[in-house]
Amino acid sequence: MPDQDGMETIGQIRTHWPDLPIIAMSGGWRTISPDTILETAKALGAQDALAKPFDRQTLVEAIRRRLAAG
């Protein structure tokens, strides 16, 4: 994302659509581990967080969890 990072995006989504489910995905930054980034994403409002690389089944399961919680 060239103009903003995922944390800013989560903040904007929460402002405009507070109930929209969010699944964060991250490979991490060079100085911060993916686990830390994804924990922060959850603290900002993401319901699920996936560390890259992940397989298709992991993504499908996360989507199913969000749909079931809907």
Can you tell me the CATH architecture? 3-Layer(aba) Sandwich
Strand order of the largest sheet: 1-2
**CATH class label:** Alpha Beta
Q: Which word captures the global form?
A: globular
Summarize the structure.
This protein has 70 residues and is mainly alpha-helical. Helix content is 51%, strand content 11%.
Describe this structure in words.
- The chain has one domain: 3-Layer(aba) Sandwich (Rossmann fold), CATH 3.40.50.
- The longest helix has 14 residues, at 56-69.
- A two-stranded parallel ribbon has the order 1-2.
- It has helices at residues 6-16, 34-44, 56-69; strands spanning 23-26, 48-51.
- The mean pLDDT is 88.
- It is mostly helical and 70 residues long.
List the topology elements.
Elements: H1 6-16, E1 23-26, H2 34-44, E2 48-51, H3 56-69
Parallel strand pairs: 1-2
Task: Give me some keywords for this one.
70 residues, mainly alpha, Rossmann fold, two-stranded parallel sheet, 11% strand
